[in-house]
């Protein structure tokens, strides 16, 4: 039975257990300096009295806010919402709070979000670049000042920082290889802004998949959506142009693009009758309900969030400035319909 809520302090725990306040503090932070037995003792007592860290006192003492900023294009996107869940699972365990903002694919809004988080003394940022972003000098300046930023999904190649991505080329290759082995000869590609890292890598996988089936690459069968599926009108236009090219299969490179394509097809019965086979990236939990059925490339979104958060918190809590940065590349799962 837990005790009623009171404002217990580290000193109260230390007095009750006959330990020093510094030992209790280190035990609660899971410090390597404290024995496992002592940690268990301290944590058990802290749970018994419903002890919670005072974030204001802690931040003043350690000159840290214990807050992480997350910047994504759209929180409602299945992929990004699952990444955020992964980030929060690690942040909560390490007593960090997260603040989430969305860019709606706007470079200006992204910069305002970054500047706001930096000015509010966030300890670090986790971010996926917006589809409009081409000027990353201000992010370069922040990382050079030592401000911790971990990039995931859409990452800048020019900045030295921790990054977490998936094997985009392999995921795309598997989807296109499946389509060509199903007998498709004109496989279209619906993708995001041309300059994004995920666009370039998935386009490379698309080309390799075509090559594996002895099919020629035709640039007319690739349609770029600058806003990555955020605007349905943009998708409708791209789909109409692909239909004019007599495609019999399509590989789609993003979650919002995939659901946007399916909506465009549903709105036009003539398109439905063409029976174009679909393979695309989506982390939707209701993919089995889609019509027409699609083969999917599923990303380990939760794991991406976890790994990114671990890298960021590790960088924040390191006593030394990072000299080497990790680029973690995770695998995808292809699920044929």
From TrEMBL:
GO terms for molecular function: DNA-binding transcription factor activity; transcription cis-regulatory region binding. Pfam families: LacI, Peripla_BP_4. Residues 8-62 form the HTH lacI-type domain. Keywords: DNA-binding, Transcription, Transcription regulation. Residues 7-52 form the HTH cro/C1-type domain. The keyword Transcription regulation applies. It comes from the Bacteria. Coiled coil: none annotated. This is LacI family transcriptional regulator. It comes from Sphingobacterium lactis.
């Amino acid at each position: 039975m837990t005790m009623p809520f009171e404002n217990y302090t580290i000193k109260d725990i230390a007095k009750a257990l006959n330990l020093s306040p510094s030992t209790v503090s280190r035990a609660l932070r899971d410090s390597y300096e404290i024995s496992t037995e002592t940690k268990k003792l301290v944590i058990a007592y802290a749970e018994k009295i419903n002890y919670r860290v005072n974030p204001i006192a802690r931040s003043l003492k350690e000159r840290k806010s214990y807050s992480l900023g997350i910047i994504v294009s759209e929180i409602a996107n299945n992929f990004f919402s699952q990444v955020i869940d992964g980030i929060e699972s690690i942040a909560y365990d390490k007593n960090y709070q997260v603040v989430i903002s969305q860019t709606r694919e706007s470079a200006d809004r992204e910069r305002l979000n970054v500047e706001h988080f930096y000015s509010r003394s966030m300890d670090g940022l986790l971010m996926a670049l917006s589809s409009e972003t081409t000027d990353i000098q201000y992010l370069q300046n922040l990382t050079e000042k030592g401000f911790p930023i971990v990039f995931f999904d859409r990452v800048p190649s020019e900045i030295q920082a921790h990054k977490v991505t998936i094997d985009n080329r392999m995921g795309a290759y598997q989807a296109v290889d499946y389509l060509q082995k199903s007998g498709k000869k004109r496989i279209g590609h619906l993708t995001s802004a041309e300059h994004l890292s995920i666009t370039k890598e998935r386009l490379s996988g698309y080309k390799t998949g075509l090559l594996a089936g002895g099919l020629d690459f035709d640039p007319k069968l690739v349609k770029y959506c600058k806003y990555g599926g955020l605007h349905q009108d943009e998708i409708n236009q791209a789909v109409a142009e692909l239909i004019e090219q007599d495609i019999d299969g399509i590989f789609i490179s993003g979650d919002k693009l995939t659901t946007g394509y399916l909506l465009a097809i549903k709105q036009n019965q003539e398109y439905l009758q063409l029976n174009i086979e679909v393979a695309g990236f989506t982390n939707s939990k209701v993919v089995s309900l889609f019509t027409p059925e699609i083969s999917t490339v599923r990303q380990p979104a939760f794991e991406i969030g976890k790994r990114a958060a671990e890298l960021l918190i590790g960088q924040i809590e390191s006593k030394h400035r990072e000299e080497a940065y990790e680029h973690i590349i995770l695998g995808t799962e292809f699920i044929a319909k």
